[in-house]
Amino acid sequence: MRNPILKALLVASVLTPVVALAQGKAPDTATYIMKEDIDKVSKSEQSLRTKDENVAVVDIGDQNFALGVVHRASTRNPPAGGGNANAAERKPCGREMASLPAGGLPGGITHDHQTEGYYIISGGGTMFTDGYIVNGRHGEQPEPGGPNGPSCGGMAYGSKKVDVKVGDVVIVPPNVVHGWADIPDHVDYLSFRPSQHVMQAGWVNPTVAKK
Q1: Which CATH number fits domain 26-195: 2.40.50.100, 3.20.20.70, 2.60.120.10, 2.30.30.520?
Q2: 3-state SS track over 76-142
Q3: For 21-80, what is each residue's pLDDT tens digit?
Q4: From CA 47, how far away is CA 29, in angstroms rounded?
Q5: What is the pLDDT of residues 112-151, one digit of tens each?
Q6: Is the dihedral of CA 155, 85, 45, 79 positive or negative?
Q7: Which residues contact 156 (CB under 8 A, 6 or more apart)?
Q8: Where are the domains of the chain?
């Protein structure tokens, strides 16, 4: 009776790593994302106040890796109105309070699963990071190309502010608050996003997709 059990356990112990490896097998070829394609996506964003688009999403085995480019215009002259018309339909997230305390920073966001690395390539401004969101609203962002997957957005509290410029790098883990407190003119940055298959591997931005 003991021998069959031992044999089964031995086979299972040998096969389990093989199965896990097969599920997370990394590709055996490199991916090139050319500057010309990054520039095309960036150019398509420049007429907008805020635009965040991935250029491509690459399968790297146990994760997917997205490269994107983000443009943000000055925060000093915001347009009248604003806000998200669908915010009331979204689920609450963050800390819930009867009313918002004073001193919050608008535009805070966290991503449920998505790590982000920023490399500033043009302009600059004052970022805020860390802290927590109060009375936020949760969005699924189900698009296959992202940019970020499920996220919580709202007023941020307890954050620190840091001035960033061209050449600076910021790394934001999942569920860490981040946003922009002040952008004097504009800021453009590359985004590097490894994640547990939040976005669809093989997705390519329509602006640069080869037909």
Answers
A1: 2.60.120.10
A2: CCCCCCCCCCCHHHCEEECECCCCCCCCCEEEEEEECCCCEEEEEEEECEEEEECCEEEEEEEECCC
A3: 344 677 899 999 999 999 999 999 999 999 999 999 999 999 999 999 999 999 998 887
A4: 36
A5: 999 999 999 999 999 999 999 999 999 998 899 999 999 9
A6: negative
A7: 104, 105, 106, 107, 108, 128, 131, 132, 133, 134, 177, 179
A8: 26-195
The structure tokens listed for 169 are 């790098």
Query: What's the token pair of residue 77?
Result: 């002259």
Entry pTM: 0.84
The structure tokens listed for 134 are 């109060």
% helix / strand / coil in the chain, to the nearest 5? 15, 40, 45
Residues in the chain: 211
Identify residue 127 by its one-letter amino acid code: M
| Amino acid symbol at 17 | P
The conformational region for residue 185 under phi > 0 = left, psi -120 to 50 = alpha, else beta, is alpha
Distance CA 130, CA 103 (A): 15
Structural tokens at position 150: 């499920």
Query: What is the edge-to-edge ordering of all strands in the sheet holding 160-164?
Result: 91-93, 132-139, 151-157, 105-111, 178-182, 125-129, 160-164
Pairing mode, strands 160-164 and 105-111: unpaired
